[in-house]
Design a protein that fits this description.
The structure holds two protein chains of two kinds.
Chain A: H1 2-10, H2 18-24, H3 34-39, H4 54-77, H5 87-92, H6 97-100, H7 104-111, H8 134-153, H9 157-173, H10 177-192, H11 196-216, H12 220-244, H13 248-252, H14 257-268, H15 272-275, H16 278-294, H17 304-322
Helix pairs in contact in A: 1-4, 7-12, 8-9, 8-11, 8-12, 9-10, 10-11, 11-12, 12-17, 14-16, 16-17
Chain B: H1 2-22, H2 26-43, E1 48-49, E2 54-58, E3 64-70, E4 76-81, E5 88-94, E6 104-108, E7 111-116, E8 122-132, E9 136-144
Antiparallel strand pairs in B: 1-9, 2-9, 3-8, 4-7, 4-9, 5-8, 6-7
The chains are: A mainly alpha, B alpha+beta.
Chain lengths: 325, 145
């Protein structure tokens, strides 16, 4: 809507300059006659008829073309007048799982901006959890949901269905199978129809409903573990893909100091029955190392070796989470 | 027996209270419906709406700040709505140090949005403020591509 306004302002519309047409007769753009211009010359100020000056007309048109995007860019990209936040403001900022922790889908959308990732190379063998450790089951549920996103990115309908079954098996153990069952049917349907965009949304909805069901079952603390599991597996996958096709933009995706700090804080708040779980304790220890690896300056580009180090750390954690007792 | 009845009654009351506290209010539902409708416009442009939201309250002297972790390369739209009550809502984005960043603003009465493409991954802060109108409940969501 803004562009026409600016054009109307700078444009040579008859309505803007009615006297030009009136002065020169019927046509607004008479042919260019240099001799006539000289004869008509006067000391008195005159309105310029751009119809007589093709060069000026071109120059003005070019100026308008250059000005429009510049004016729009200035108007749109500099809302300014925003005062910097104080330290007190920053302290008051709310962090919530539903918005502060990105989904694996968001992480994967960012890595897709570079070269086409080889998603199938990031598949892993199916996991089988026999232990009754609820913390481990919740962590694995998170890693499995991340696996679901990988299968969707790879557009592999069979793999989506396989992972759906694994998710359902774990959900049963955590007594939230009804929620997953309802979503599972539509996931299978979308997979069979190769509806990849819908599948992505469905996976996110599944993840949220799993968390909601845990909350309803008074298992709210397990939600943190689902998020942590998903983030660790997502980091393993993204670092693996960055290593395959290293470039600065992809490597910079790995900068997430505040996210790891947020997850660590949530883990620190777990009740003793979960906080003292050996796997959770191991996880907290290893997250300290991972936090160091993802805490670098905004302008730093992680080297290939730094990416490898993070990949090894996250892969080790994923394995420890998935190990069958 | 009396003690048992009393315990059950108190438990029921606590459970009812909890469910009341957790239930969405009419204002929240209205704000959420409106913000989803609003964000639908970005879907036509290839943005995916994240299935998560934040409810908060804003007044002329009380804004809300939400921390989000963003990835360089992705484009984001943060959208907020109060449903009906606010006169002029505003959404703005700040970097991890609290400095304002360059973003694309949108403002239309009870609805506001900010479009942002981070050059560095990390934490950012989304501020929802009320520039004019009565205190209101808002719903914040975001879309990405």
């Amino acid at each position: 809507m803004r562009a026409p306004t600016i054009q109307a302002h700078f444009g040579f519309d008859k309505r803007n300059f009615p006297e030009i047409g009136a002065e020169r007769g019927k046509s607004l753009r008479p042919p260019f006659h240099p001799v006539q211009v000289r004869q008509d010359w006067t000391w008195d100020p005159q309105l310029i008829n751009c119809g007589d000056m093709p060069l000026l007309r071109k120059w003005l048109r070019l100026s308008v073309i250059v000005l429009i995007p510049t004016v729009l860019a200035l108007a749109e990209q500099q809302p300014a007048s925003d005062k910097p936040l104080s330290a007190e403001d920053l302290k008051s900022a709310v962090s919530i799982d539903a918005l502060t922790v990105p989904t694996p889908g968001e992480f994967f959308a960012a890595i897709e901006k570079g070269a086409k990732p080889n998603w199938t190379s990031e598949y892993r063998p199916p996991i089988s959890i026999r232990s009754a450790d609820r913390a481990q089951m919740a962590l694995n549920l998170g890693t499995l949901i991340a696996d679901g996103y990988i299968a969707v990115e790879a557009q592999d309908s069979q793999q989506v269905k396989n992972i759906g079954k694994d998710v359902l098996a774990l959900a049963k153990k955590l007594s939230i199978s009804q929620t997953v069952l309802a979503r599972g049917a539509s996931i299978t349907q979308f997979a069979e129809n190769n509806a990849w965009a819908q599948l992505n949304e469905e996976l996110e909805a599944t993840q949220n409903e799993v968390k909601k069901a845990l909350e309803e079952n008074r298992d709210i603390d397990l939600i943190t573990l689902v998020s942590v599991g998903g983030w660790i597996r997502g980091t393993e996958v993204v670092t693996g893909l960055v290593m395959q096709n290293y470039n600065a933009d992809s490597a910079k995706l790995l900068r997430q100091p505040a996210l790891v700090a947020f997850l660590k804080n949530k883990l620190a708040l777990l009740p003793d029955r979960l906080g003292k779980d050996p796997l959770v304790q191991k996880l907290v220890g290893e997250l300290n190392d991972i936090q160091r690896m993802v805490s670098f300056a905004p302008d730093h580009v992680p080297t290939v070796d730094e990416v490898k180090e993070l990949n090894a750390a996250s892969a080790k954690l994923t394995k420890e989470i998935g190990v069958s007792e | 027996m009396n003690r048992l009845v009393l315990t059950v009654a108190v438990s029921c009351l606590v459970a009812t209270h909890c469910s009341i506290v957790e239930a969405e209010t009419d204002d929240q539902v209205a704000a959420r419906n409106d913000v989803i409708d609003f964000a639908g416009a970005f879907q036509n442009d290839g943005f995916k709406i994240r299935d998560g939201n934040y409810y908060g309250k804003v007044s002329m002297d009380q804004s809300a700040l939400v921390a989000v972790n963003l990835y360089n390369g992705n484009a984001y739209w943060f959208t907020a709505s109060t449903g009906e009550k606010a006169e002029k809502l505003k959404v703005s984005v700040f970097d991890e140090a609290g400095n304002p960043v360059s973003y694309e603003p949108y403002q239309s009465g009870t609805r506001a949005a900010a479009g942002f493409s981070p050059e560095a991954s990390g934490v950012y802060y989304v501020k929802v403020a009320l520039e004019d109108g009565q205190p209101a409940t808002f719903c914040l969501i975001y879309s990405y591509k």
